[in-house]
Amino acid sequence: MHTILVAGAGKSSTYLIQYLLSHAAQNKWKVIVADGDANAIAEKTDNSPYAEAAVIDITNIAQREPLVKRADIVISLMPPHLHIHLAKDCLVHKKNLITSSYVSDELKLMKKEVEEAGLMFMCEMGLDPGIDHMTANKIIHSIHRVAGSIYSFKSYCGGLIAPESDNNPWHYKFSWNPKNIITAGLGGAKYLSNGKEVEVPYEKIFENNKKIKVDGLGSLAYYPNRDSLKYLEMYDIPDIKTFLRATLRYPSFCVGWEALILLGLTTNEDSFDKKGQTLASWVMAKTGCTDKNTLPEFVAQKLGVEVNSTAIELMSWLGLFDELPLKPGTAASGEILLDLLLEKWSMASAEKDMVVMQHEIEYMHKGRKTKLTSTMVIKGENRELSAMAKTVGMPMGILARMVLNKKIVPPVGIHIPNMQSVYRPVLAELESYGIEFKDEIE
Length: 442
Hints:
This protein has helices at residues 14-22, 24-27, 38-45, 61-70, 83-93, 105-108, 111-116, 131-145, 179-182, 232-235, 251-262, 279-287, 295-303, 310-318, 333-344, 387-404, 420-432, and strands at 2-7, 29-35, 51-55, 73-76, 96-99, 120-122, 149-161, 189-193, 196-200, 210-214, 218-224, 242-249, 272-273, 330-331, 353-365, 368-379, 413-415, 438-441. It is of the alpha/beta class. Among the domains are: 2-125 and 387-437, NAD(P)-binding Rossmann-like Domain (Rossmann fold, 3-Layer(aba) Sandwich); 271-331, no CATH class. It has a seven-stranded parallel beta sheet, sandwiched between helices. Helix 12 crosses helix 13. The longest helix is centred in the C-terminal third of the chain and has 18 residues, at 387-404. The protein is globular, with a radius of gyration of 23 Å. It starts with a strand and ends with a strand.
């Protein structure tokens, strides 16, 4: 009998936990779900006899370590900065670890110890990062097999609201960790364009609002995602001239979000006393406006746009010019904004989200230029059974099952899923769940 520890019962865990429990009887598994919220665990496990609830503080070693010790494999859906606690326990007790988060600097420092222990720490095993790595490397390796030379690689992904549930001018609602929206683009971005390294600061991330076409959806805007350059070596594309990983949004979102950044409304570096204040007085304090009656005009002038522009319309829809009272207390601007967005961008229970991923790869083959466009569009069933939860959770669940059942030999070390031994079987099973791509060659 094997024991699987799932740390985290948040938005992205629904399909993962369901998948593991659906295979538990046949495989004689015990699935321990650990979280600080007993209700969240109960919702995800639905009284399954194969599930065990563990209501713990993940930072408390006395509560956490015994669970890791019992487990045969650990899957962490905790916020990125908390993975390290589980990673250290996994190293002590010789357990393989799977997460959907980026490889952190703290984890990199454990590389030698993980290798010496013969363990697999598979990171970036979700959607983006995750499915993007697996599908991109599958394409890259297939082009290499026919002696093609790749000179341009662009990969785009976004968690969006499905058109049938889209009823606000931002064309966005929360389907995953809301805090990640506030910090999007915070560290700036780096990518390769026509042989030159491009570095974009946070303030300019949303500025260009470049677009791509997606069949059935029309134009979507994209902005560069973090440091694309760190994947160049992992993707094994030495002749590449353009290499970009980017996030997709609807065009108006980028216009509105750039305005919020420029006005300082997304920062967590300030402190604002909310007692007796309103949304409008907060915006006045941030922008230097002294007359609340002219606030929209003042903000428009500060942004260099017309008062009837999309940016001002989007801010107005959020209520940023209204005398809506703030809850007393002290908070950073980013926290005030997040509280507002949690109300404005929440999904109703029957509403559907949508995940879009597209790779555009250009290469030379036998002297001829070829462009391959590979696209995935998946809609959720409702708020709980979201496309985001499905595409983030399923790859981790499938890898865990295949490692426990010896269908995959776990690669030793700290990895992302760019090796054929992992991505081939995982992608094949994902296709059986409707997570698949359509390719076009021109």
